[in-house]
From TrEMBL:
PANTHER family: PTHR34580, SLL5097 PROTEIN. It comes from Cytobacillus solani. The keyword Hydrolase does not apply. It holds the Pfam family HTH_11. Keywords: DNA-binding, Transcription, Transcription regulation. Residues 3-58 form the HTH deoR-type domain. Gene3D superfamilies: Winged helix-like DNA-binding domain superfamily/Winged helix DNA-binding domain. This is DNA-binding protein. One of its GO terms (molecular function) is DNA binding.
Length: 314
């Protein structure tokens, strides 16, 4: 049996066993104890979380039994996975136990030499460009965990240099333009809010507040469910060809893009009354490539903001 095959089978074997001894592995694979010890050292360097205990009843075991069995990827799959992981380098904080450098090193070093050579040639030829994360977000892992468990946390949230404390029940977390966000139910405001994770300075479990049922609310459907009874406006925005291209990369829920044969288009749908200020800034960034037709409240808000900007240059 080749060394590579022995290591692969050893990973599957130790993953099945709660604990094992060097002697057992030596007998199983027909090699010396010294060879098994070297193999275990290699598995440890590959990331298998092995733990050893001395004494007559000692041996080895896999910590937490969370090591995955080996999976065979073809060259195309391996390269695709590498660059999917490679895209994470823009984020200095991830909601996982391992950070980017640890993940990419472990995966890359266990690829065959020819696949690594192919990746090395491609690295400077293909990229997924995104905004670099600037702020540390130390609590995103905890926020993800409590959203899964439907628990409530008390967070210290900083706005304009001041920290306020509130109980929130997170729905999940997502990254957008270099920042992490956490949509949650805020018990202070008695409504749903989106919190910037880098502004959360402290976090602790709230055992005194009773959770609400968010079991059917996810990141993908939260807008349609939590905004159901809120006041909305009907939106109509005309877009030039450039405006259509720009909107394609920043789609919003409940807003439909309709493209005409000449490449121009328009947006129709609903927006929350409370989001009027946000969409004012959003469409001002489109310049001449967007013309808001309705609601009138959004048109008036845009005019007011543009007048304020104009006064700065008078």
């Amino acid at each position: 049996m080749s060394k590579a095959k022995r290591l692969n089978e050893m990973i599957m074997m130790v993953n099945r066993k709660k604990r094992f001894k060097v002697k057992e592995l030596a007998q199983e694979f027909g090699v010396s104890k010294r060879t098994i010890l070297r193999d275990l050292q290699e598995l440890s360097e590959m990331g298998v979380p092995l733990y050893s205990e001395s004494g007559p009843y000692g041996g080895y075991q896999v910590l937490n039994e969370r090591i995955l069995p080996p999976i065979a990827f073809n060259e195309g799959e391996a390269i695709s996975i590498f660059f999917a992981i490679h895209a994470l380098r823009h984020y200095i904080s991830l909601p996982f136990d391992s950070e980017y450098e640890s993940i990419i090193k472990k995966f890359y070093l266990n690829l065959s030499g020819d696949i690594r050579e192919t990746i090395d040639k491609m690295k400077n030829r293909v990229d997924f460009v995104s905004v670099y994360q600037q702020e540390e977000t130390p609590y995103i892992k905890q926020l993800l965990e409590v959203s899964i468990k439907q628990e409530i946390v008390i967070v210290g949230y900083e706005v304009n240099g001041k920290i306020t404390y509130r109980s929130i029940q997170p729905i999940g977390i997502y990254a957008n333009e270099g920042k992490w966000y956490c949509p949650s139910y805020c018990f202070l405001r008695k409504d749903y809010r989106v919190f910037r994770c880098d502004r959360i300075k402290t976090i602790e479990l709230d055992v005194n507040t009773v959770p609400i049922n968010l079991s059917t609310i996810y990141l993908t459907n939260r807008f349609s469910l939590i905004n159901r009874n809120k006041e909305t406006y009907q939106l109509h925005v005309e877009l030039t060809n450039k405006g259509v291209d720009k909107y394609k990369s920043t789609k919003w829920p409940n807003i439909e893009l309709i493209i005409r044969n000449d490449g121009t288009g328009f947006l129709k749908g609903t927006i929350l009354k409370s989001d009027t200020a946000f969409f004012s800034n959003f469409f001002i960034n489109y310049g001449e490539d967007a013309m808001v037709k309705s609601p009138s409240e959004l048109v008036d808000s845009i005019k007011e903001k543009l007048n304020t900007i104009l006064k700065q240059y008078l």
